[in-house]
Amino acid sequence: MKLLKQTIKETENATIEASLLSLTATASTDYALWKACKNMNPTRNPKPPLRLHGNIWARSKQEKADAFALHLSKVSLPNEPKPDSDEADIAEILQRDHQLELPLKTVTPREVIRTIKQLDNNKAPGFDLIDKKVLMELPQKAIIYLTTLFNCIFRRSCFPALWKVSQVIMIHKPGKPPHEVTSYRPISLLPVLSKLLEKILLRRLSLAMLENSVTPNHQFGFRPEHATIEQIDRVCKCISNSLEQKEYCSSVFLDVQQAFDRVWPLCQAPVQNQITTASQLLSNHRILPQG
User: Fold this and answer.
1) 200-208 own/partner pairs: CB under 8 Å, 24+ apart
2) What is the SS3 assignment for 217?
C-alpha cells in the first residue's frame, strides 16, 4: 500500500510538471501561460457603497451592516392577522398543557449519531464556529449529554434562544445594481446544533402530520416520494380530462414574495405537541449581519 501511494504521488507530480512545461505565452497553446497566471490571481471587484435614502451612502462595514439590518427588519415581518381569524384561539390552545397527549418519541444516542452523519459536510458553521467535523469527533459522553438535552427540549417544549441566533451574509443578486440594498439576498448561518435538533424534530413532525392527514394529497412539495414530474403529470391529466369533457380548465400560479419570512407558524395546529416545540423554534429569531 505504501509503494502504491508513492507511485501515485510520483505520477501526479510528473503530470503537473509536464503540464507546467507545456504552458507558453504564444498563440500555439492559446496563451495558456497567461490564462494560468490570471486564474492564480483573480481580480476582485471592489464592494461599492450602499445608497440609502436621499444622498446618504453607507461606506464602512458597520454602516453597511446597519443598512442591511434595517432592511431585513422591515421585510421579514409576518402578515397581520385578520380580525375574524382563529389565530388567537389556536395560539391559546397551543399554550395549554397537553398532559393527555402522548409525548414525543424519545431521542436516543444512536439517532443523534445517525443524524450527525446525515449533516452536509459543505455547510458553513454558525456564529459559534461549530461544524459537522466537530460533532463527528465528540465522545460517547458528549453524545449522551446532547441526547439528554434534546429530550429535555421536547419534554418542556422550549427551544434554546441561543440556537436561534443566525449570522447573515448578504449575497449580491446577478444583474442587480450593487449599490441598492434590495439587490442582495440574505443567507442565514444557524448553529449546527440547531440544525441537528431541527432534523430530529422534523422526523417526528412529518410522521405526526402523516398520521393525522394534515398534508393534503395534492401537495407535492417537501414530501418524500413526491417528485415534481408527478405533479406535472397530475396537472396534465386534469387538463386532458377537462378537454375530453369539453369543460373549462383554469389554473392559477402564485409567486409569493418573501413567503418564508411571512409564514404563519401556527398553520399545523392538529399536531399540538410537535407544533408547540416547532413554534418555539420559529419565534424570536435574531440575526447577526456580516458586512
Assistant:
1) 200/107, 200/111, 200/112, 200/115, 200/150, 201/154, 201/274, 201/277, 201/278, 201/281, 204/104, 204/105, 204/274, 205/268, 205/271, 205/274, 205/275, 205/278, 208/271, 208/273, 208/274
2) coil
165-172 and 286-290 beta bridge pairing: parallel
Determine the 3-state secondary structure of 161 from DSSP: helix
Give residue-wise pLDDT tens across range 51-99.
887 778 888 888 888 888 888 888 766 666 666 666 677 667 666 665 4
57-71, 118-132, 208-222, range with the lowest pLDDT: 208-222
Model-level pTM?
A: 0.66
Residue from 162, 161, 170 nearest 72 by CA: 170
Which residue shows C-alpha cell 390552545?
93
The model's pLDDT over 40-55, given as tens digits with 9 standing for 90+, comes to 665 666 778 888 877 7
